[in-house]
């Protein structure tokens, strides 16, 4: 879309209409150095000339504040500790089998860089999102799998080795395939080399913060089993508390003003996008004829995205006065993906308790369908013994010869 024909779009006055954030001059210079947008204007100017609003002034203050940097560091440390705990669940022998047969790598490729970018692209088109909104949704869809999928997979008794292999593989593949997906799909809204803004350092850091703690967790499980169990429980609780505090803190400081600027259609996209990912991932597991626990892992791995990486790209690519409330989209997506996965976990555990582990009431004189079918299908071997009646009031079992002669 050529925004130069839109009413009120005056190219010479764009720099005065949008104020730079602190330190934003260097970012804008970098954007212009990458080729900028059409007619030589910066990438952010390709969307629209947006007058600053009261809510847009909240972002620069929080964006580069010490509190924001402190939260980022703290969350990163908690995620590393969580991956250490998840490494304690890895079975080295099964992990080696997944490496020899790289089904997990193929699934990660299809799930994260075929299904999810396409889902994000189609949802953005279906709901006719504006340029900035569509780019935020697309960036989230093109990100690799997040650590939340490993936690959720553990809670539904999924195949943890497959889940971890998929997370690592998708993060590694993101170095090449994420820019490719953005180049393919982003041209529907902008015509700019936004792929040049990819934070490859952040992707490599994410990969290292995943591989190293998992390796230490595997070693911890091998050497100190009891300590590994304690670390696993502590890591899960620490992540749960951290996420809860993060949602409360961010919502209290930025939520009311910024969330009110997000259109209702974006909320619908944030709800539908994880659901589509979960459904497509489970269908892919069925297509590959995977066992049920692996299907659950693939499903969660597909729907859960690395929202931290998405937030980093949004922060780098767009000034806060332009991105405004859409800076909250990754957090919004994380909220809905966790809530929907929580519903699935609750439903699975209820099914497991009430159906798979249904008690047998034989002692109470009640025959369930399971026990009735078991007795009906059971074939009794006549060589176990024969019944002889010597007295009307007594029944004894005598051993039979190997081939009893019918009477």
TrEMBL record:
Name assigned to this protein: Sodium/bile acid cotransporter 4
Gene3D superfamilies, per the entry: 1.20.1530.20
Main location: membrane
Function statement: Transporter for bile acids.
Family named by the database record: Belongs to the bile acid:sodium symporter (BASS) (TC 2.A.28) family.
Primary gene name: slc10a4
Compartment(s): Cell membrane
A Gene Ontology term for the protein's cellular component: plasma membrane
Membrane topology of this protein: Multi-pass membrane protein
PANTHER family, per database record: SODIUM-BILE ACID COTRANSPORTER (PTHR10361), SODIUM_BILE ACID COTRANSPORTER 4 (PTHR10361:SF41)
